[in-house]
Write a structure and sequence with these properties.
Strand content: 15-25%
Structural class: alpha+beta
CATH class: Alpha Beta
Largest sheet: 3 strands, antiparallel
CATH architecture: 2-Layer Sandwich
Number of strands: 3
Order of helices and strands: HEHEEH
Radius of gyration: 21 Å
Strand order of the largest sheet: 1-3-2
Oligomer: single chain
Shape: globular
Helix content: 40-55%
Length: 105
């Protein structure tokens, strides 16, 4: 009986805490999705380049978060999606281009 009451209390705490833990960032209004198709045999080169761009962005203090996705099943494994969240179209005007980021870093 004690085990059952402990489980009920634990479940109640989880249900009460999860919505607060999941709502740390407000949802964005827009997504910028860039589809990148890499030539077969050049995936390693692309991933190395993407790492350099990421490091350059960190070095210059670029506040954006870019999420990269790669197809694995049922599609091209050489296709990537770069997703950036933003709230206002004017934000895109201040984003540095990849060449600018690499030069500044």
């Amino acid at each position: 009986m004690k085990l059952l009451s402990t489980l009920v209390v634990a479940l109640g705490l989880v249900v009460a805490v999860v919505p607060f833990a999941a709502a740390q960032n407000a949802p964005s209004n827009f997504l910028n999705v860039l589809t990148i198709t890499v030539h077969p045999g050049k995936v390693v080169d692309f991933e190395n380049f993407a790492r350099k761009v990421q490091e350059a962005g960190e070095e210059i203090g670029d506040p954006r978060t870019v999420q990269m996705f790669q197809g694995r099943l049922g599609g091209l494994t050489t296709q990537y999606l770069a997703v950036t969240l933003f709230n206002d179209w004017a934000e895109m005007d201040s984003w540095p281009t990849v060449p600018q980021m690499l030069v500044e870093a």
